[in-house]
Design a protein that fits this description.
The chain is of the alpha/beta class. The chain has 2 domains: about 180 residues, NAD(P)-binding Rossmann-like Domain (Rossmann fold); about 90 residues, N-(1-d-carboxylethyl)-l-norvaline Dehydrogenase, domain 2 (Orthogonal Bundle). Helix content is about 45%, strand content about 15%. It is built from 11 helices and 8 strands. It has an 8-stranded mixed beta sheet, with helices on both faces. Strand 1, helix 1 and strand 2 form a beta-alpha-beta unit. The radius of gyration is 19 Å and the shape is globular. The chain starts with a strand and ends in a 17-residue tail after the last helix. The chain binds acetoacetyl-coenzyme A and nicotinamide-adenine-dinucleotide. Nicotinamide-adenine-dinucleotide binds next to helix 1.
């Protein structure tokens, strides 16, 4: 099967980024959010992002127009029935994702590939909600999706080899550098990255150094583009806690047990950049 039409579900940070990547790479893209107004807002945000690239001289006006022409927005999941590949990028919650896979299984054409952008959750759990578990695969983009080279292709024990190969080719056609990884919580990157981020919060809680100094240290000392607190704010603290919970559930390693401050910040609605406040304040 040749992938031409791609459905993207979820209008958050990642859904929007993946939509931009796929549409710019020449795919027809159907964006689905639960509310039409949010789906329309995604298209408006995409147009704004493309306009910025035109202003910077990185994109031709004709490419911008062609990209936008390939994108449609809907609140109706049934509009995804003809998609060759559907990538869900909704909240990191297994119960919610499983329910979505049950719906997609009934709506999407038989040979469609159903993919999840989950950061940590077991692919096999979503696969087994469908009658086509071999066609379910993880396609894990990184944040911000338009800028980050990596895509982890996550194979569950029931994912077909040809399905993994097709989504790998899809990621390459989007200009990304895919790697293949088995279905274990956190895959490659998050299994290594999140103990580091979590321990940075624990270090702050223990009064070892200020948040600003920890960020400065990791940028200057390791040449990381962002320190751990800026990165947690970029990822989103609710998503970060969900990732740590899933890692802890699977491995019971204390390094994965979320630092107490993280959960309290989520309860307070301090989610990072997306809510205007996390470790840093983005409201001004
Ligand atoms: N969305 C889209 N584009 C963005 C962006 C965003 N949120 N933030 C910055 N950019 C773009 C800018 O438009 C700019 O583009 P051009 O070069 O085309 O003009 C480019 O990125 C550089 O931006 P800046 O000069 O403002 O900032 P920067 O040089 O510091 O780069 C960054 C920004 C790319 C985000 C960089 O800081 C970085 O790489 N940070 C680390 C990101 C990272 O580690 N991501 C992985 C998170 S973990 C994950 O994603 C997995 C998971 O499951 C949670
Ligand atoms: P986000 O909070 O920005 O967006 C979440 C989206 O899920 C929103 O569109 C929201 O409306 C939708 N949603 C929330 N509850 C829902 C429900 N009950 N039913 C259907 N939709 C619902 O989150 P995000 O950062 O874009 O993360 C989306 C997915 O991508 C998650 O699985 C996350 O783990 C993964 N991911 C996140 C990052 C990151 O850095 N944030 C990176 C890679 C992968």
């Amino acid at each position: 099967m040749t992938i031409k039409r791609v459905g993207i579900i979820g209008s958050g940070i990642m859904g929007s980024g993946i939509a931009e990547v796929a549409a710019k790479s020449g795919y027809e893209v159907v964006l689905r959010s639960r509310q039409q107004a949010t789906a329309d807002a995604m298209v408006a945000a995409l147009e704004k992002s493309l306009n910025k690239q035109v202003e910077k001289g990185k994109l031709e006006e004709s490419e911008r127009d062609a990209t936008l022409g390939r994108v449609s927005a809907t609140s109706d999941l049934h509009k995804l029935k003809d998609c060759d590949l559907v990538i869900e990028s909704i909240v990191e919650d297994l119960v919610v994702k499983k329910e979505l896979f049950r719906e997609l299984n009934h709506i999407c054409k038989d040979d469609a590939i159903l993919a999840t952008n989950t950061s940590t959750l077991p692919i096999v759990e979503m696969a087994m909600e469908t009658h086509r578990p071999e066609q379910v695969v993880g396609v894990h983009f990184f944040n911000p999706a338009p800028m980050m080279a990596l895509v982890e292709i996550v194979k569950s024990i029931v994912t077909g080899d040809e399905v993994a190969a097709e989504v790998k080719a899809f990621a390459e056609s989007c200009g990304k550098s895919p790697v293949i990884v088995e279905d274990r919580a956190g895959f490659i990157v998050n299994a290594l990255l999140f103990p580091y981020l979590n321990n940075a919060v624990k270090m702050l809680e223990n009064g070892i150094a200020s948040m600003e100094d920890i960020d400065t240290a990791m940028k200057g000392g390791c040449n990381f583009p962002m320190g751990p607190f800026a990165l947690l704010d970029l990822v989103g603290l609710d998503t970060s806690v969900a990732i740590l919970d899933a890692l802890y559930d699977e491995f019971r390693d204390p390094n994965f047990s979320p630092a107490p401050a993280l959960r309290r910040m989520v309860t307070a609605g301090h989610l990072g950049r997306k809510s205007g406040k996390g470790f840093y304040d983005y409201s001004r």
